[in-house]
């Protein structure tokens, strides 16, 4: 049977085969372009191990208007390798993500793809590559994915995590004329349009903690003191940063049932320096010492304090469970021994905390996004314990108060404001 769907008869024949287990992949003009900005030149559908391509804009094909095809596809739910990317391309369709249920796969390609990308890396190169080669590549990718026998879909990942990150990405950050002084993207049009740059949150890390690094720009690693943050400014009136105070110690305290009554770093500094009077220098050093306690192992000299004592007990408990069961549950996430054969107790605890932090934050961001709805104020950046809002005065002060209430439900929040990202204070 034909694989290229170019006529109404072919489309009608294909529609008769549609079922609930179809796999879909959008073929972009260039694989390296952010999905939000990319032209989609075709859609690949696999039904019962048979691949088909519906072309939208390829030089070899009789092309369909995508506005004719997408409404037809919107009546079904498709399995996709990357739901977050698919939501950028066609948010009106329904998807089930596969990527989170399988190990990482190879970079499927063909010799044609390799050659064309080497010669024309910054063009809509996929329009030049023969359509049959796109079919070959998509078929290879599909069979490798299915060969892993995808596991059970994680409801939190599929229905909350990925949609939350996709909505966050689509807001983008406005850049100004200072951007070129500090940043050199691999190719500007891959992630920049109309003076806005779009990031990419990758949740498929060791602990599930998303990194935001795309097109040569690491948004998580933006420096505080060299002026590069001045390159980002609000679309609305000013930036508002809300970040948790002493987030990890408080998060650990919540897990082990210990509540800090006062400032976290003052409380812990009193333990380290055995004094009630803490100098500014000791306060600063306290943060460093706490980081070492949490990530490097608790000093036995501090185990007399309930916070450290309870924390060490918890480390011992999850380590025993991890070795006995071969995994531990962290909210909706599993840390498996098979994935970490050389892990030790302290590292397991570190992963546990980062996974807990991530799910806590994602669920809060989900609530924030629902609250903001169609308001002009938008969440434009998330960096672990900090949330950056592009605030519009049209939304009035009560919106800021409501956002603060949402974020500070469990832990105290500090607020900074500024006319650009580097001016927060």
Short key terms for the protein model shown above:
18 strands, alpha+beta, 425 residues, four-stranded antiparallel β-sheet, single chain
How are the SSEs placed, and which strands pair?
Layout: H1 8-15, E1 23-28, E2 40-47, E3 50-55, H2 66-73, E4 77-80, H3 83-89, E5 94-97, H4 111-119, H5 131-147, H6 155-171, E6 173-175, H7 179-182, E7 192-193, E8 196-197, E9 201-202, E10 211-214, E11 217-218, E12 232-233, E13 238-244, H8 247-256, H9 264-273, H10 280-296, H11 306-325, E14 327-330, E15 333-336, H12 345-372, E16 378-383, E17 386-391, H13 397-407, E18 413-418
Parallel strand pairs: 4-5
Antiparallel strand pairs: 1-2, 2-3, 6-8, 6-12, 7-8, 9-10, 10-11, 13-17, 13-18, 14-15, 16-17
Task: Describe the protein in words.
- Helix 3 crosses helix 6, helix 6 packs across helix 12 (345-372) and helix 12 runs antiparallel to helix 13.
- This protein has 425 residues and is an alpha+beta fold.
- The protein contains 13 helices and 18 strands.
- It is 39% helix and 18% strand.
- It is globular.
- It starts with 7 loop residues before the first helix and ends in a 7-residue tail after the last strand.
- The protein has helices spanning 8-15, 66-73, 83-89, 111-119, 131-147, 155-171, 179-182, 247-256, 264-273, 280-296, 306-325, 345-372, 397-407, and strands at residues 23-28, 40-47, 50-55, 77-80, 94-97, 173-175, 192-193, 196-197, 201-202, 211-214, 217-218, 232-233, 238-244, 327-330, 333-336, 378-383, 386-391, 413-418.
- The strands form 6 sheets. The protein has a 4-stranded antiparallel beta sheet with strand order 7-8-6-12, with no helix packed on it.
